[in-house]
Amino acid sequence: MSRDLENTLYLELKDGRVVIEMRPDLAPNHVTRIKELARDGFYDGIVFHRVIDGFMAQTGCPHGTGTGGSGQKLSAEFSGEAHIEGTCSMARAGHPDSADSQFFIMFDRAPHLDSQYSIWGQVVEGMDAVHKIKKGNSMDNGSVKDPDKIISLKVAADVE
What we know:
Belongs to the cyclophilin-type PPIase family. By secondary structure, this protein is α+β, with helices and mostly antiparallel strands. It has a single domain (5-158), classed as Cyclophilin. 11% of the residues lie in helices and 24% in strands. The chain is built from two helices and eight strands; from the N terminus they run ββαβββββαβ. The chain has helices at 28-39, 127-131, and strands spanning 8-13, 16-22, 50-52, 56-59, 87-90, 103-106, 119-125, 152-155. The two termini are 16 Å apart.
């Protein structure tokens, strides 16, 4: 099967490449924004600041704390898709239209997130590398001491 390289991301982690198939059919504005940020190098070097074993790994905060973003809020694009292993979805604050640059990758199924967060992609290769991301302290909401980083996040069309 040939990939749509314009809607594929290469996420380079310490344990290898993760290939993410983006879903503009579900969240076109989120896909567009993530591609803009990836092309600007925004995600390169950013840490996975919140990682909860059996749940998800969150990244995309330039401060490494979960308190920041790129400064551009996105309106919610909720769908009926399920949050399953490998789902890429936007993190947000309490308000549905508060997503910015932070996102998470699911380790497992989490039905309580369905229709509450904007799903924009799915890991199609390299989930083993995602599972090796350093886990955080479950007693501290997944906060990670000396966290793993995104080496780079690139749009495949810009690489191939």
